[in-house]
Amino acid sequence: MNDFERMAELLLGHIDKTPEYYENLYPTRDLPEGARVVRIAPSPTGYLHLGTLFMALVNRITADSTGGIFYTRIEDTDKKREVEGGIDDIINGLIRFGISIDEGFVFPTEQKGIYAPYKQSRRAEIYQCFAKKLVSEGLAYPCFCTAEELAAVREEQEKNKIRTGYHGEYAVHRNITVEQAEALIKEGKPYVIRLKSPGNEENRIFVDDGIKGKVELPENDEDFVLLKSDGIPTYHFAHAVDDHLMRTTHVIRGDEWLSSVPKHIQLFKLLGFKPPKFCHVAPIMKLDGGAKRKISKRKDPEAAVHYFAEEGYDAKSVIEYLMTIASSEFEDWRRANPTEPRQKFKFNLKKMSVSGALFDGDKLNDVSKNIVSMMNSDTVVEKLTDWAKEFDPEFYGILTKDISYTKAVFAIDRDCPKPRKDIAKWNEAKDYSSYFFSELYTPSFEFPENIAAEDVKAFLEKYIAIYNENDTKEEWFGRIKALAPELGFAAETKEYKANKEAYKGSAGDLSTILRIAVTGRRNTPDLCSIMQVLGRDECLRRLNDAISNI
Ligand code: GLU
Fold first, then answer.
1. 251 C-alpha to center of ligand 1: Å?
2. Is the CB of 46 under 6 A from ligand 1?
3. Residues 474-499: tens digit of each pLDDT
4. Which of 31, 115, 21 is nearest to 73 (CA)?
5. How far is it, in rounded angstroms, from Cα 394 to Cα 50?
6. CA distances from 67 to 38, 62, 85, 214 (A)
7. Does any ligand 1 atom lie closer than 6 A to the CB of residue 76?
């Protein structure tokens, strides 16, 4: 046994498995040519972020477009940052947004797949096995520096304007002998295991990033930590071991990791692994006072995915919108394929924004209005009541008092070839529908100023006399038109426009008067349908109420 092997036994003597054991246990995947194996590796540190959802979507569509696999792996190596229920929030969140998971944590309490365990805290022995290999080859060593010692070195480096970190002459335990290590261990000194980096900061490495293209970076010369003093790996080491053994082909992750690529490439090489294709995604940005900045967990409510649920955005709308951020080609594809599932869209990582796409709430609303407009009334009522039950119980009570009435309300100008696009999120539905519900309705008697009060009154009185709740749309408007001449109004807008002095207004103005009297608004969906849903008694009550308020 040489000294390196003795060191490996000293540090990791309890490890009896070899790297070959794991290579066999986790075989290469038998997938068609070009299929990509991708993953997200979230840490259970809180609620599901928009950034994580976006990253999951980009990975999911990469797998979909290539007939590949999308899996989840939980990075719970930082126990201090972990929150109770963090996994549930993330996995349930993905499921709720329709991001299907092929492997890994497919449910908060269920792992699927032969590359298990998919939770890093349960893979300690695997990392230790590969760390042992590196130590036995003289590529890693124990470092006994205390936090205070490291802080003092950093201070000195800062003072002397030297790049901070554990490198070169500052890597004081680089050449520690087995005997020295043994003595320190006997004294009970804690230690970490560091990589003995063969790199030189002066050298450049070239990476062909799947999104950013050619990137040039300095070689890594830092003896960074592989295993912490509790035997748990750092992100860097776990990433290399896991993505290799889980046979990831493309590591698609946030671009905050781009500067760590030299470390990762070095690790893959020293471990004898083929590196995956790295693809670094720019964060979603926000416009703040004219300047672009990253969406912030502290400043922006939409950073937490829960916000969208609370506002009442349909999961499909959020995903459809994120698709437009993920690919500038998606909107054209969607126009050409309005009803195809998004899974059919051929996604190309190279088309992603390099600088970070802007989050645009107005665009989200437009996308969402379109999606809601395509839902039939049963779906709308089901989703709306589900939302209201959780976020607006008072409205829920109103909506569910007479569900067939509620369905009739939301069927107006829906379930037809050209549905209206006026609801983007369920928290707008209360205002949208308020005049249908006595608990929410406030009448308005603000009739158009250009029409005299006595004309308004005369029209409403005459209308009551001829009102027939069984009219078709044409008959309904026909009656208003028929009334127009005797009240001094033009039956046709054209006539009125051609000779304004001759008329008090047009039949269109009369229907506005009727609309205000019945709904309190100037703008609504089809008024004839509204009146049918409200019913004769309620319409007459409102019309008479309006007359007595003029
Ligand atoms: N836990 C890391 C993060 O959330 C994962 C990065 C990766 O995908 O490798 O940033």
1. 10
2. no
3. 999 999 999 999 999 999 999 999 99
4. 115
5. 29
6. 11, 9, 32, 26
7. no
Q: Is 527 helix (H, G, I), strand (E, B) or coil?
A: helix
Contacts of 546 (CB under 8 A, 6+ apart): 443, 445, 460, 516, 517
Residue-wise pLDDT for 404-422, tens only, equals: 999 999 999 998 999 999 9
Structural contact between residues 178 and 136, judged by C-beta atoms closer than 8 angstroms: no
- Tokens at residue 442, please? 């406030």
**Closest ligand 1 atom, residue 254 Cα:** 10
Judge if the beta carbon of residue 51 lies within 6 A of ligand 1. Answer: no
Buried residues in 345-362 as b, exposed as e (16+ CB within 10 A): bebebeebbeebbebeee
What atom of ligand 1 comes closest to residue 75's alpha carbon? 1
**CB neighbours (10 Å) of residue 38?**
29
| pTM, 2 dp | 0.92
> Using a 6 Å cutoff on CB, does residue 39 contact ligand 1?
no
Residue type, 464: I
Would you name the residues annotated as active-site residues?
Answer: 297
Cβ–Cβ under 8 Å, residues 81 and 61: no
Q: Which atom of ligand 1 is nearest to the CA of 256?
A: 10
* Assigned token pair, 126: 């695997």
